[in-house]
Amino acid sequence: MSSAANSLHTSEYAARPANQTRWSDAPPLTQDMLSGTFWSFGDVNRGMFSSFLVLAPDGLIGNYFEPDVDFWHVMGGRLCLIDRDGLPSVIFDSAHIEGDNLMALAGRGVIGGVDATYLMVPVDHPPHPLFPTPADVERRATFRAQPQQGIRRPNLVVVPANSKSLHPRWFEKIDEATRNWDLCIGYYGAEEPEVSGSPYEYLAHLPKRKKFKLLYDLFYEGSPLWNYERIWLPDDDLLCNGEDLNRMFHLSHKHGLDLAQPSLKQDQGSYPNHPLTIQRPDSLVRYEGFVEIMCPLFSQRALQICIGSMRDVESGYGLDHLWPSFLGRPTARMAIIDAVAVAHTRPLGATYNVKAAIDEQAALFKAYQYTPLKYAGVR
User: Fold this and answer.
1) How large is the angle between the packed helices 354-367 and 319-326, nearest 10 degrees?
2) Its domain of life (predicted)?
3) Are residues 99 and 22 in contact, defined by beta-carbon separation less than 8 angstroms?
């Protein structure tokens, strides 16, 4: 789980009846301690309603959308769930603690007209339903190159690349003095990395690793890649230049975006996946509820919440629906940046099995208890 509420193992606890649990007054909590943490949620009589609820930044509730659980806040050191009228639905004033670990929170309240004792138990991202890596297997990339400690720009581009990657073109129209982003190359080719075509700050070799598994391995706990304010995770078949990337990062900072992407060109040789993402010339930044897996741009806090979903995915299908849900559908902090457009040079489905990807998406949605939303302009 996100680090704020300690490291927990909850499967055994979840099977223990609440009336057999030793409860005490909840310790004082703060907004910062809880922001970005993950929980199962239910009551003592009806069981679990949500296996993966997120206390998302700025009080939003992620991956569980009900009128009586519209917002969260800490008042007087107590976690409160707030309804759409601004009234507390549940105040969690009791806790189960073992050693230094907070194992559960409990509180009396009314949700959906039911007066009950409600429970929140810390959890982590569920294991991949089809291809789980055992939890005890270490997933940690080794960097062959990285800058000296403390020497870095504010933003980071992390590209899974092979010898055909287009990322050397991203340095056009920019120089070392004006570039506002560092580059990490996660080289997935089986051969020794061929990366002489461009500068880079970080290099790791993860041969034959799929994009999101590779990214998960790069962003291990304590990785130097976490030391950036905004992080772009593009495919290596995108064509743009350094001036574009500077502008993209600038606008994401200026507009306080947690999740964004550049728009897509519709010129000859560019293959947009969704009509929604095609550049609109009369727009600068367009607030939308969907950002695709091809080129997501995360704030650091948003990526910390979403990175666990990438651990074992093969195709990435469905992640672009899950991420907004985890973040509480932050309509004012998600956008397509029309001021910057990139060309997607490879058609959809050119390098993977689309049916297998759709099956993986369905399995992921079930694992997260996520009900898909339809977005206009998303195929």
Assistant:
1) 20
2) Bacteria
3) no
In the chain, the amino acid numbered 371 is: T
Residue 183: strand, helix, or coil: strand
278 alpha-carbon distance from chain centroid: 23
Cβ(215)–Cβ(158) below 8 Å: yes
117 membership: H or E segment, kind and range: strand 114-122
Rounded CA-CA distance 225/141 in Å is 11
Kindly give, in sequence order, each residue whose CB lies less than 8 Å from that of residue 274, ignoring residues fewer than 6 positions away: 290, 292, 377, 378, 379
Find out whether 292 and 275 touch, Cβ atoms under 8 Å: no
Full pLDDT tens readout for the chain, 379 residues = 333 334 333 444 444 556 667 899 999 999 999 999 999 999 999 999 999 999 999 999 999 999 999 999 999 999 999 999 999 999 999 999 999 899 999 999 999 999 999 999 999 999 999 999 987 899 999 999 999 887 899 999 999 999 999 999 999 999 999 999 999 999 999 999 989 899 999 999 999 999 999 999 999 999 999 999 999 999 999 999 999 999 999 999 999 999 999 999 998 889 998 999 999 999 999 999 999 999 999 999 999 999 999 999 999 999 999 999 999 999 999 999 999 999 999 887 656 788 999 999 999 999 999 998 889 999 8
The domain locations on the chain are 3-122, 143-367
